[in-house]
Design brief:
Protein name: DUF8094 domain-containing protein
Organism: Cryobacterium lyxosi
Number of helices: 12
Helix content: 25-40%
Shape: elongated
Pfam family, one: DUF8094
Keywords: Membrane, Transmembrane, Transmembrane helix
Low-confidence stretches: 121-127, 248-266, 268-272, 283-290, 295-301
Mean pLDDT: 82
Number of strands: 17
Structural class: alpha+beta
Order of helices and strands: HEEHEHEEHEEEHHHHHEEEEHHEEEHEE
InterPro entries: DUF8094
Number of domains: 3
């Protein structure tokens, strides 16, 4: 019976071990699923459609091959389409019938057949001569290489991949998409381990059976008594054999026989340590893919699913601000007007260009406060699918209190242009930014003539300018919060100091008016708005007596550098550009308009005609 059980154990062990090994060898599924496409034609851009990226589950490994430079980037499908605009491009998609990748070419839209298409900024971009997609602020991430680029991403629905070379040469033609497959064999481990246990049990049963058989062949001690036989002479006793002289024994045989299964068991145990060889009975899976940073909705913002997406993600804006910070630092040092114009516009650019001009004449004039690139403590992008786009952010370095907290308003005019700093403010120390939507939701832009606010955004600058001139006599005085408004105090003190320093032979007049820059307004959670506007201040100095002359004050280095005059009988005029950031409550609210931040700079100084 023991031999039968041993044979059965050997057979079952062999079957289980063979099945376990087969699962990891001949029956093992491939680790990757791959699809390839060869793009025909000479288009400059190739778009990998979301349908191709989601042809299989899991992370996508994208391999692009070509003859020269290769550029690869991913972004929202709408942004990729907007950047390409009317240029010819190829699309790599997925055929629902065959399950293979397909390649189709969309011809360029020319001036002859462009009638009826949208006349937005995206169409105008074609004439902008920007053909290289590298460095665009629209991309969530980009990669470059030569002859081959490979990257692994986890892209959700709504994200497309753009492939190009340099925008002049045709895009690379060879594209391969791969997805990691689940080729785990959860029962290979139990089969191998179970087979090893049965093999060991069979060997034990076999040894026990041999021992039992040997015992059964020994002479029996209790035999029936028969007739007594004559006593035979004793045979000589053999010499005793010491234990050390024994070369083989049953224990030795058993030990040798046991060596083989122990080696087999050890090998199988070592080979079965991988988690892919064992079933996972946990209630939650721990092997989840980490998604590539992309704009994705969350449970807390399900209600915003139908809203337009935010103009940028936080990670996008961090990259953008880092690039702008480095560029502005270099331009501020070298006084490079062309470089700074690639990332600044509007009143922020105007103020910096004036500072460069002043410092070129008089290096003793201090540069403007450097724009830090991080950390971003507040981000409010506009909800939009169109252009222009705006976004607001606040940069505050808590470890360096000498750097003021800066608020930045950036604007992107069209898909093929990058974000430019339009407004740049130093926040008031007591400023309290109202609650706004999270960055993954964004805020709608408020129209400049919106009447649902305490003051429409396009009337805000004029009302504040009137308060600077008339004070409490201004009709708008009661609409603005006076407490914490340091800019109003600063202007009043400076104007009083200038009047006190003026000689009796001269007069000075102050004026203020709304700037020509468009107001930027983003909604807050309480139906109010954060509004950025510009304002223009002028001071005109004239002689009052015939033959008298006037000139800039001795300490007015900027005025002298810009005007180039020391004395004049005609008089001169200084023009300042003010950048103002307000919180405007909703119409009918008992709250007042609060100044959140400001920046002021001399932009021109010239002799009167």
């Amino acid at each position: 019976m023991r031999f039968v059980l041993a044979i059965v154990a050997f057979v079952l062990a062999a079957v289980m071990i063979v099945l376990g090994i087969a699962q990891r060898t001949i029956f093992l599924e491939p680790a990757f699923t791959s699809l390839a496409s060869s793009v025909t034609g000479d288009t400059k851009y190739t778009v990998i459609d979301p349908s191709a990226l989601s042809a299989s589950t899991g992370s996508q490994t994208i391999n692009v091959r070509g003859d020269g430079a290769i550029f690869l980037a991913y972004g929202r499908s709408e942004d990729v389409a907007a950047w390409i605009a009317d240029d010819a491009y190829a699309t790599v998609g997925l055929s629902e019938k065959s399950g293979e990748l397909t390649s189709t070419v969309t011809d360029a839209v020319t001036a002859d057949n462009a009638e009826g298409t949208s006349g937005d900024a995206a169409t105008a971009d074609v004439a902008a001569a920007i053909v290289n997609p590298a460095g665009s602020d629209l991309w969530l991430e980009e990669y470059t290489g030569t002859k081959s680029v490979t990257t692994t991403l986890t892209l959700p629905e709504g994200i497309s991949v753009l492939v190009a070379s340099d925008g002049i040469a045709p895009a690379p033609s060879s594209i391969r998409l791969s997805w990691a497959s689940d080729n785990s064999t959860p029962w290979a481990g139990p089969l191998l381990a179970g087979g090893a246990v049965l093999l060991l049990a069979g060997l034990v049963l076999y040894v026990l059976a041999l021992l039992h058989l040997r015992r059964s062949r020994r002479p029996r001690r209790n035999v029936p008594r028969g007739p007594r036989m004559p006593r035979l002479p004793r045979a000589p006793r053999p010499k005793a054999i010491k234990a050390s002289q024994i070369t083989t024994s049953r224990r030795g045989i058993a030990r040798r026989v046991a060596i083989l299964p122990m080696i087999v068991v050890s090998g199988l145990a070592l080979s079965g340590c991988s988690a892919d060889l064992w079933p996972d009975f946990s209630t939650t899976s721990t092997a989840t893919a980490t998604p590539t940073p992309t704009p994705q909705p969350t449970d807390s913002v399900e209600a915003a699913a139908e809203l337009p997406p935010p103009a940028v993600t936080v990670s996008q804006l961090e990259t953008i601000m880092s690039e702008i910070s480095l560029l502005s630092a270099d331009a501020d040092t070298t006084l490079n007007t062309e470089t700074i114009a690639t990332r600044f516009t509007g009143p922020a650019l105007e103020q910096r260009l004036a500072n460069y001009k002043i410092r070129a004449v008089d290096p003793a004039v201090a540069p403007l406060v450097a724009l830090a690139g991080a950390p971003l403590t507040f981000t409010l992008p506009q909800q939009t699918n169109s252009w222009p786009r705006v976004v607001m952010t606040v940069i505050q370095d808590e470890n360096n209190p000498s750097i003021p907290t800066m608020a930045v308003i950036l604007k992107q005019e069209s898909p093929r242009t990058n974000y430019h700093v339009q407004y740049l403010f130093a926040l008031e120390q007591s400023a309290h930014v109202p609650k706004v939507a999270p960055a993954i939701v964004g805020a709608p832009a408020i129209a400049p003539d919106n009447k649902l606010l305490l003051l429409p955004p396009n009337e805000l600058a004029a009302a504040y300018a009137d308060i600077l001139l008339q004070g409490e006599a201004s009709p708008s005085f009661g609409l603005f919060e006076i407490e914490g408004d340091n800019f109003r105090v600063q202007v009043a003190d400076l104007n009083a100091a200038k009047v006190a320093a003026l000689p009796s032979t001269a007069s000075i007049d102050f004026a203020a008016s709304a700037g020509t820059d468009e107001a930027v307004a983003l909604a807050t959670n309480d139906s109010g708005s954060i509004v950025a506007v510009s304002m223009t201040e002028t001071e005109t100095v004239k002689p009052v007596d015939a033959g008298a002359t006037v000139g800039p004050a001795a300490d007015a280095l900027a005025t002298k550098a810009l005007s180039g005059i020391t004395t004049t009988a005609k008089g001169f005029q200084n023009t300042y550009r003010d950048q103002l950031l307000f919180y405007v409550p909703t119409a009918g609210s008992s709250d007042k308009i609060v100044l959140l931040g400001f920046a002021q700079g001399l932009i021109t100084s010239a002799e009167l005609p």
